[in-house]
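Our preliminary data section would be incomplete without showing what the modeling component actually yields. Below, a chain of 436 amino acids is followed by its predicted structure, encoded as tokens that our downstream tools consume directly.
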Amino acid sequence: MLIQPVKTKSPEGEKCFKALLSRFQAADTSCRDLVAEIIHEVKTRGDEAVLEYTRKFDAPNLGSENLQVTSAELKEAYKLVDTQFLQTLEKAIERIQVFHEREMEDSWMQTRENGTIVGRLVRAVDAAGLYVPGGQGGSTPLVSSVLMNGIPAGIAGVAQRVMLTPPNNEGKVSPHLLVAAQEIGIVDVFKAGSAWGIAALAHGTQTIPAVDVIVGPGNQFVTEAKSQVAGMLRIDMIAGPSEVLIVADESAVAAHIAADMLAQAEHDPMALAVLVSTDEKLAAEVPCELERQLGRLSRAEIATTSLKDRGIIFIADDMDEAISLANDIAIEHLELMVDRPWELLPKIRHAGAIFLGHHTPEAAGDYLAGPNHVLPTMGTARYSSALGVETFLKKSSIISYSKQALEEDGDHIRLLAGLEGLTAHAASVTERLKDR
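Predicted structure:
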């Protein structure tokens, strides 16, 4: 049996729960020194270093003139995709666009009778870098990553969206990625991946522009590079393995639960799939369904490893306990496969995304529902949120005092400045009030 169900209050159940609560781990630092060296090389040698690494690991014959995807390549991409893809792409773009438009923030002002004006000015960053992984040498293009990262940046008003993705062995980029990029208004696409791609976005090269924000998933080298450049620019997040927690009552179908657990497990051997069920019979049926469905999967080996090493099936006493466990675990994807999911929604405090009802697979959120699929993992949903338009926005405070306002507030400002021992702060007010 892939997973042996455990009762939450059993010693084994308590051990599993404790492990889930402490699952946060920093990025894999085994490549830290190598990534630091790569970043230094790109910072100092620019295109030369990017091409050197790209030729070594991705495209042996890539020329400097082909580092940026050409207009001819962009145009040719449309001839290499079919109508069905274009129709699906159009639907996905529309859904994601409409959802994220609601996230846009407005600048605002407050005025006081004495002439004080305060407020917040909301502005987009100048440039954003969108990293899209190669997807097994381009054979499995991650179109959804293009959309989920590029559309919110466009809505925010980012003037320059720069997309980086590693080329295949022939120095080409998947036409599906190129069409997706163009359909959302991105034409600056460069052939660079891994840590050298992130370094190029952070520091800029002769060809690749530097950006203010870097978003997008990647392997341990991408993650470590993002971690090392964070601070000099903004990154979306340091993401851990993909994860799902399914809360199920007796109305749930074991086959549906197993299918959704496998959908997470096929991502990565370290992916996490958890079931919390209030029905012991259902919990016993799910392992059999997992075994039955595994044989159909193209990534059966990966999914098997994930479920054996990290999969968990809890049996909870009641729904209150199940929801309490879910809140404590603060999972990336939370599915409520229960009879009345909307009644439970007010009780959910911590989750990256919440999927309600028996007909809402997590895969819908990955591709077409509209909300962003870049979500907090490893319990960080306790304090962080999905990627959105705000990722590409910054806010400036606005302060304007009239003479009357400074006269009214002057003594208070000077008192607080004096307590902090900052006499020049106090003097900056005194100088202005000398004539009153």
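The domain at 6-25+240-369 is CATH 3.40.50.1980 (Rossmann fold). The mean pLDDT is 96. Preliminary results of this kind motivate Aim 1 of the renewal.
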